[in-house]
Every structure is written in structure tokens, then in C-alpha cells.
Write a structure and sequence with these properties.
By secondary structure, this protein is an alpha+beta fold. The protein contains 12 helices and 21 strands. Strand 1 and strand 2 form a beta hairpin.
Length: 417
């Protein structure tokens, strides 16, 4: 592959291909994000990812039911913010999360899960739209073909279910929101709004106003019935304060949801599963042969989950390499890799160093040669697999370093024939 790679031609083709995609951040933070390259996967590999995603989602959602019946003390041990406890058991839908993303790694022992982003997963536009554009460019079949329609249908289904439960007797005011200044967040949100294909409008976060125990209002002063906040994490929202009045406006928003004066997607229940400490609960219950999971479910856990604990003792005793990661963290931030007490690799950012750490068995991400604007490089590949209303859906790849951070590339995938 490297022998036929001509950089100037590559740059020209990449520029032409991505110029066809409106409102896409193929370059992000002044550096290359979307690769002009394609990785090929077989139908069996895609099917295996879908099966793994379905089973992993089932385990998490079943665990969500258990956690809702747990004490506040137990939930605090999972690093859930104290301010969210009055609302965390609120369940607006039959499934805990409308859009989740499972991060998987292909290993010699099969697919292994690193984590589940159940609250605010991004990567939708890349997987459900841009991937198809690049598949056409390279003349291969898109494994995600038709799944944007499935995504839209499932989003409409969730919105309709929420509105039905609310007994709203007027045309609902549906608002999609994000930070306006963040290009990826804004255009991901706009893509989801377009895909949902419902009467709705986009209003940036800073233009929303809240009246305590009364309602949330849009930029025209109209009361919002349903808020879609795909990219704004609840752990940040609960800390939101009004700069002038010093009121806890994030908590006030959750109060509106609990009082059914506002409906929100992803719902609060999605946040219950966001803490990576939940993986330690699941793994621990499997190891203790807890009766809550069936024999088949325990087999799924041992197959797809990695040993994950709230203490590193077991890894120190065995000498096995392990990863220390924050319960609430994103894009590899504050992640470090150890062998014994020796730190052998870490992310430079420390945004989440106050978050409860979890300790997970280390696995190598598979390496793949990729074409970049700087020439041929090697990228460590991570699979992002979407779970939509509990159903497996689109798949995408990130190619970066062993710790997949914000600088990782988007690597399109096509079907191998």
C-alpha cells in the first residue's frame, strides 16, 4: 500500500472528497481528523460486533434496574454526584438510553469492551452519514447502509413515547441544544435533529432560560416540552450555576424533568450507567457468581468485559499491566497505564483527576497502517458500536494511540468482499 501512496495526490483527493460533506469537521482543532482511507471488515466481523453490542447493552440495562433499587450510599460509591441522587432513579423510557456507544477492541481472544458511553456519545455523523460518502468514494459497500433511517425511526419512537407519557395536548416544542461554539457538538446535534425528522429547532445552550419549578424556555420565550441534549454531559449540567444569581440552574433543570414539566433525551437513566465504576460492579458480581445474572449472562460478561475493579491490588499481586481511568472521563483524559507501581504511559490532560478511579486489565489495541496528510502512519484501532434504543446499529473506527484521545482519527470502514 505504501508503494502506491503519493502524498500530493492523496491531499487533493481528500480535499475533494470532504468538500462534498456539508457541516463536517474533517479537520478539527487545526489538525487532520477524518482520514482519506478505508478499512475493510467482513460481514462476519460486523455481525460479531452487533452480537457483542446487543449482549453488552443487555447486561448494562439489567444492571441499571438493580442500581435503581440500591441505596444512595451505594450510588455514591459509584462516584455519582450527590446533587443528582434525588433524580437518578427517574425513568422516562422502557430503555435507559436512546443513543449509547460501546467502545470495543478486537483481540486474539475476541471482542473486548473498554467502556460504554450511555449518556452523551458523539461520532453519529461520522458513522451514519460520512462513512457512506467515503465508501462511495472508494467503491465499496457501506456496512452502515440504511442505518441512518433506523436511527431516525428509533429517535422518533423515543420522542413519541416520552410525549405520550406526558399527555401533552398541544403541538410540542422540541428543542435540540449544544454548545454553539463547539463545531463537533453543534453539527452532531444538527445532524441528529435532521435525522429525527420531527418539528424541532436548534437553540444553543446559552440562549436557554430556566424558571425554577416552572419550565425551561427557548430563545423566543416559549416553554420547551422536550430537550435533546446529546452532547452535554449530566455531570457537567448538575454543576451549572447562574453567574448573576448563583442559583443551581443545572439542578433546577433536573427538578423540572423529575416533575414531568420537561422531558429530556438522553434521559437521566442514561447517566446512571455512565460511571465506569458500574463495570466494576458487573465484573465483581460475575466473579462472585451472583444469582442476579443468569449463567448465560455471566458467560457474556466473562467473554466481552475486562476485569475491572475499584482497587488495583489484584493487578499489583499478579504483575499484570492495567489501566487507571476516571469513573467519569472522556477522550482518554486522565487515563494512565501501569505495570506494577510503575507508570508506563499516561495522557497529558488531568481534567478528571478528582473523579473516582477504576482499574481495568490492559489490552493492546490492534495496529493498522493508515494514510494521513503526513504520509503513512500506524494507528491503534478502536471500534465504536452504537446501541440505539437497545438495538445494535452503526459501527465506526477511531485510529490513534494506545490511549485513544481527542487527536485520534476517524477511519471509514467498508465491507470486504
Amino acid at each position: 500500500m505504501s508503494h502506491s501512496f503519493h502524498l500530493e495526490e492523496h491531499l487533493s483527493k481528500r480535499r475533494d472528497a470532504y468538500s462534498k460533506v456539508n457541516h463536517f469537521w474533517h479537520d478539527l482543532y487545526d489538525s487532520e481528523y477524518a482520514l482519506y482511507d478505508i478499512a475493510l471488515m467482513t460481514e462476519q466481523e460486523i455481525a460479531d460486533i452487533h452480537i457483542a453490542t446487543l449482549r453488552i447493552g443487555h447486561i448494562f440495562f439489567k444492571t441499571g434496574n438493580l442500581l435503581r433499587s440500591s441505596s444512595d450510599e451505594t450510588l455514591l460509591q459509584l462516584d455519582l454526584p450527590h446533587s443528582i441522587l434525588p433524580f437518578i432513579r427517574h425513568r422516562a423510557l422502557p430503555v435507559d438510553s436512546v443513543i449509547s456507544r460501546v467502545d470495543l477492541v478486537q483481540t486474539a481472544d475476541g471482542l473486548k469492551m473498554l467502556e460504554l458511553n450511555s449518556d452523551t456519545p458523539t461520532f453519529e455523523k461520522e458513522v451514519f452519514y460520512v462513512n457512506g460518502v467515503l465508501c462511495k468514494e472508494f467503491g465499496v459497500e457501506d456496512p452502515n447502509k440504511g442505518l441512518a433511517e433506523m436511527l431516525g425511526k428509533e429517535m422518533r419512537k423515543a420522542l413519541a413515547e416520552m410525549l405520550h407519557r406526558s399527555e401533552i395536548d398541544h403541538e410540542p416544542n422540541i428543542v435540540f441544544t449544544s454548545h454553539e461554539a463547539h463545531e463537533e457538538d453543534k453539527y452532531t446535534t444538527l445532524f441528529l435533529m435532521e435525522t429525527a425528522n420531527v418539528p424541532a429547532k436548534y437553540v444553543p445552550l446559552h440562549k436557554l432560560t430556566i424558571k425554577k419549578q416552572e419550565g425551561l424556555y427557548d430563545d423566543e420565550g416559549n416553554k420547551i416540552d422536550l430537550l435533546y441534549r446529546q452532547t452535554y454531559p449530566l455531570e457537567h449540567l448538575v454543576e451549572d450555576m447562574d453567574e448573576q444569581t448563583n442559583e443551581e440552574i443545572g439542578v433546577q433543570l433536573l427538578e423540572l424533568v423529575a416533575l414531568n414539566k420537561l422531558h429530556m433525551v438522553n434521559p437521566i437513566s442514561a447517566f446512571l450507567l455512565q460511571s465506569k465504576a458500574v463495570q466494576a460492579v458487573i465484573w465483581g458480581m460475575m466473579e462472585r457468581d451472583h444469582a442476579y445474572f443468569t449463567a448465560e449472562e455471566k458467560q457474556w460478561i466473562s467473554t466481552y468485559f475486562l476485569p475491572t475493579y475499584l482497587e488495583e491490588d489484584i493487578f499489583l499481586k499478579s504483575g499484570v499491566k492495567y489501566v487507571k481511568k476516571p469513573s467519569f472521563g472522556r477522550e482518554g483524559d486522565t487515563v494512565s497505564i501501569y505495570k506494577g507501581k510503575e507508570k508506563i504511559l499516561e495522557d497529558a490532560h488531568k481534567t478528571y483527576d478528582k473523579s473516582l478511579p477504576v482499574f481495568q486489565k490492559y489490552i493492546d489495541l490492534p495496529a493498522q497502517e493508515i494514510k494521513t496528510c503526513d504520509g503513512m502512519n500506524e494507528g491503534k484501532v478502536l471500534i465504536g458500536s452504537f446501541l440505539i434504543n437497545g438495538k445494535p446499529s452503526g459501527i465506526g473506527l477511531r485510529a490513534g494511540k494506545q490511549i485513544t484521545d481527542n487527536n485520534a482519527y476517524f477511519l471509514p470502514i467498508g465491507l470486504k468482499r
